[in-house]
Amino acid sequence: xxxxxxxxxxxxxxxxxxxxxxxxxxxxxxxxxxxxxxxxxxxxxxxxxxxxxxxxxxxxxxxxxxxxxxxxxxxxxxxxxxxxxxxxxxxxxxxxxxxxxxxxxxxxxxxxxxxxxxxxxxxxxxxxxxxxxxxxxxxxxxxxxxxxxxxxxxxxxxxxxxxxxxxxxxxxxxxxxxxxxxxxxxxxxxxxxxxxxxxxxxxxxxxxxxxxxxxxxxx
Length: 219
Hints:
This protein is mostly helical. Helix content is 77%, strand content 0%. It has helices at 11-35, 38-56, 58-70, 72-97, 108-111, 116-138, 148-166, 175-196, 200-217. The chain starts with 10 loop residues before the first helix and ends with a helix. Residues 1-7 have low confidence and may be disordered.
């Protein structure tokens, strides 16, 4: 199957979208000494950056939302596929690979229960939206005349690397397994996008998996 990805975003918009993504670790580090809680700092950074990204790239988000509405039955199918694959892969990572996951400290739900809903929202929807919108932005100028699998793998390796650097594990021995986890995760998002031409299945799949994960193992 020949696959061509055409450019739809300006270089300036792509660059500024990436800057919004890079705000996450910056805001996190600035707020942690003030708040005294890394999870709450990251929660604020994720929610703020997701909100900023939606506003700045509203046309992109709206375009993909409309595509999803126009073909909701196919989107639903790939949401289910994405949920199953990502949940199983996350389970494999937790039990065998031991890669670092971007999850809240479970203690925050007991020490700061009022912040619980905002934490759940940040580490599921906000993070899922940031991940999918950013990978779409950063690969928007890539043009491949090759098999679909090539594009999927390139996306996985490229953004898996970037994502690992932004959410760098505190334990350096976890970096290889964390990178592997993200490579597969973003390859999955790329596959879902290539099948449906919208990032919505990736956003919903990530949100559902991580929300379930936190409810089952953190709250």
